[in-house]
């Protein structure tokens, strides 16, 4: 039985503790005989297992999961996902409806993502599944560096200065890790 009153949550590690703001719980009277208790109790019985995902050629991921318990079917499932590097604590939510699989579109190539699933019924969320990590494969950038300029250094010793701007972010198709500059040899540099 849950008791009414204030509750707090404490996060602790070797360096100390941090306490959350308080939350108040109120216990309501029992439902009249014949009325079914709302979904929250049923949701606690739902246990999900997120299977391995599949990266699709379109920078999307196909995920599937299964129920590990024979609990009543929830109203639907929410997939939560976030990019791991660079580190992001912001979880994006994708409503998968009643299906036990979904496609998460428009992910960024060259990044690893974390995925998990949780059931819902009405406005209540159930317990989260295990999490899976999946890397979205890179492709060749779809645009070259822009505004490339070549000039001679002011020192007059034959040094060439090359500058450019990176391709637009939507054309990276992964993480650009470097640039190569070379000449045709006619100008004496390479």
UniProtKB/TrEMBL annotation:
SUPFAM superfamilies: Fibronectin type III
PROSITE patterns the record matches: FN3
Stored InterPro entries: FN3_dom (IPR003961), FN3_sf (IPR036116), Ig-like_fold (IPR013783)
Annotated ranges, domain Fibronectin type-III: 39-139, 144-190
Source organism superkingdom: Eukaryota
Name of the protein: Roundabout 4
Organism: Charadrius vociferus (Killdeer)
């Amino acid at each position: 039985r849950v008791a009414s009153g204030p509750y707090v949550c404490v996060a602790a590690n070797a360096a100390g503790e941090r306490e959350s703001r308080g939350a108040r719980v109120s216990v309501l009277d029992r439902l009249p005989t014949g009325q079914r208790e709302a979904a929250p109790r049923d949701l606690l019985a739902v246990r999900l297992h997120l299977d391995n995902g599949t990266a699709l050629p379109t920078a999307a991921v196909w995920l599937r999961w299964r129920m590990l318990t024979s609990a009543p079917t929830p109203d639907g499932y929410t997939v939560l996902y976030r990019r791991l590097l660079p580190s992001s604590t912001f979880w994006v939510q994708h409503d998968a409806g009643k299906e036990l699989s979904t496609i998460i579109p428009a992910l960024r190539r060259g990044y690893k993502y974390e995925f998990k699933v949780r059931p819902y019924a009405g406005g209540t969320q159930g317990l989260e599944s295990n999490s899976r990590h999946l890397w979205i494969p890179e492709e060749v950038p779809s645009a070259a560096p822009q505004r490339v300029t070549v000039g001679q250094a002011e020192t007059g010793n034959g040094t060439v200065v090359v500058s450019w701007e990176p391709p637009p972010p939507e054309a990276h198709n992964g993480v650009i890790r470097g640039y190569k500059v070379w000449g045709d040899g006619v100008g004496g540099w390479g």
